[in-house]
Amino acid sequence: MHVAVAGLALGGLLAGGAFFALQVARPAGGTSADSFAAHAPETARDGLVQPATVTPTPPLPTPTPVPLPVQHCYGPRLGTGGFPLRPADADSVFSNCQVIAYYGYPPVPGLGVLGQFPTAEEMVAALQKEAARFDAVNGPRGVALAIHLIADVAQASPGPDGSYVARAPASLINAYIALAQEHDLLVILDLQLGHASLDAEFAAVEPYLLNPRVHLALDPEWVTPGAPGTTIGSMDASEITHAQELLGNLVLTHHLPRKMLIVHRFTEGMITNAQDLGTIPGVDLVIDIDGFGYAAAKTSEYQAFVHDMGAPHGGMKLFYHQDVDLMTPQQVEALDPQPDVVIFQ
User: CA-CA distance, 24 to 229, in Å (whole number)?
Assistant: First the structure.
């Protein structure tokens, strides 16, 4: 059995994406926390009242710097413990940490583990417990916990703008960023672009990316010539490079720590001209092995797309319910190079 070469079965895509949400015209239901249940569109009320007497405007206070998240991860690398690690700069979270993430879109529990807990606090507790299992066997590096939230959900119908994409409500994204702030987690915003342009969807999430704890992911599976879910999509290396450049410019302009750009992959064709991929200052490119199947097949995919192709950083996605033989932390940590990102769906 091949790792989720995403065969189409009865209209359902056997891959690590969001086919269940393709039937959702807009975000539905609540989230995994009671306080996150309401996501009505925000209405802006703009207006200007001209005062009768103009008084001098006091100087604005100096903004309070946003504290650096997961501070234990940054700085010169403290050691490898004999594990094969990809190089990482001191301003990269990968310098001294491995990222362990829960993936999903909470209003639709079928889209991942992130939405399969009664409350957000229970989700965080489970993620902490899972991360501890990896921290115990990954050598001297620590772990950074992350919420991997689908911010663009691919749809089966084009919608009014023809993009085949539904954006997650700002209230949902902000709620999970606040949760991450409370527990010192990272947030990874995942874009299933459908027919939307990268520039437009990057602009939509750019305000969140100004937060040093927020990172970006792309899922080429849903970038298709027809409706998402009817075939396995792809992105060209030039598009991924453009995303790296957008992130890199953001890092440089706003003096941010390096950003992760995670790109999901489980077939050769999902990234065309992959040999042209490279590195961009300020960005850590991660090729994440997506899809479910046998551990041996997933390991083979990792060997081909990460090790053999010299990917800057490697990631492995694990599926609690669909993987035939779920890889143990010891099996994951034994991969070469040791994955810098482990995602649970």
Answer: 13
The DSSP result for 21-46, as a single string, is: GGG-SS--S--SSGGG---PPP----
Query: Strand, coil or helix: what is 104?
Result: strand
Angle between helices 170-183 and 120-135 (to 10 degrees): 50
Q: What is the pLDDT of residues 297-316, one digit of tens each?
A: 999 999 999 999 999 999 99
User: In whole angstroms, what is the distance from residue 92 CA to residue 99 CA?
Assistant: 11
pLDDT per residue over 22-60, tens digit each? 333 333 333 333 333 333 333 222 222 223 333 444 554
Our measurement of the distance from residue 9's CA atom to the centroid of its chain's CA atoms, rounded to an integer in Å, reads 26
pLDDT of 291 reads 86
- DSSP state, 95? G
The answer to whether the beta carbons of residues 309 and 342 sit under 8 Å apart is no
Helical residues (DSSP H) of the chain, grouped into ranges: 120-135, 170-183, 198-209, 237-254, 295-302, 329-333
* Residue-wise burial string across 80-99, b where 16 or more C-beta atoms lie within 10 A, e elsewhere: eeebebbebeeebbbbbbbb
- Dig out the tokens for 311 from the structure: 């990917």
Domains and CATH numbers, the chain: 78-344 (3.20.20)
pTM: 0.83
d(CA 199, CA 170): 18
